[in-house]
Amino acid sequence: MPATVTIIFGGQEQQTFALEKPSTVVGRDPTCDIQIDNLGISRNHCQFLRRGSAYVVQDMNSSNGTFVNGKRIAEHYLNDQDEVVIGKYTLKFRNDEQAAQAQAAEKKEVPDTLNTYVMDGAKIQEQLARMRGQTAPAPGRPAGPMTARDFAKAMDGVAPPSAAAAAKVQLYQTLFAISFIVNILLVTLLIMKVAGVF
Question: What are the backbone angles phi and psi of residue 20, rounded to the nearest 5°?
Fold first, then answer.
């Protein structure tokens, strides 16, 4: 199902449009895909572009500008529930597929407490960020909520780990288990010696 935009004026929803085309133009001109007949809207004000499973809103050199969640933009990757404001109109963006993917990602991020993993500091930070519903911070950039650009990258899919990488993880898990058992035995022997059992 394609994403949609709902026109809101004065707090009231007016009409909802499906973003079925690669480009959906919004403006005052009658030839626009979504026409808003208001002098505060430019003839060709902005357009919604579909890029794979993600959507972008792009200003078309409008007189009064295009705003997403209160910030003026030239081009912006949209997230589900973003609000695009042009003139006195709000265009509420909805992307059910993106919302469903975000929910599925949250369910997958439940930590597996039955297995032990060896992680370095960066991996731990990345896992914690995922568990909070955030993306891992890029170098020099603070962590933040998952963006539509991140969603688009995620939709491209990630290659499964190679057999060598999987074998390496299995080896680390086995070595950790052996080390744990040896430590338990040593502690038990130490306790028995201190208690005078032998």
Answer: -85, -25
DSSP class of residue 160?
P
What's this model's pTM, rounded to 2 decimal places? 0.53
Contact call for residues 66 and 51 (beta carbons, < 8 A): no
Distances (CA, A) of 119 to 70, 74, 125, 144, 173: 39, 40, 10, 22, 11
Pairing mode, strands 34-35 and 23-27: parallel
Supply the Cα-derived Rg of the chain in whole angstroms: 26
pLDDT in tens, 75-117: 999 999 999 999 999 999 999 887 677 666 666 655 555 555 5
Q: Is 133 left (phi over 0), alpha (psi -120 to 50) or beta?
A: left
Question: Going by C-beta distance under 8 Å and a sequence separation of 6 or more, which residues neighbour residue 109?
Answer: 130, 131
Q: Are 65 and 45 in contact (CB under 8 A)?
A: no
Distance CA 62, CA 75 (A): 12
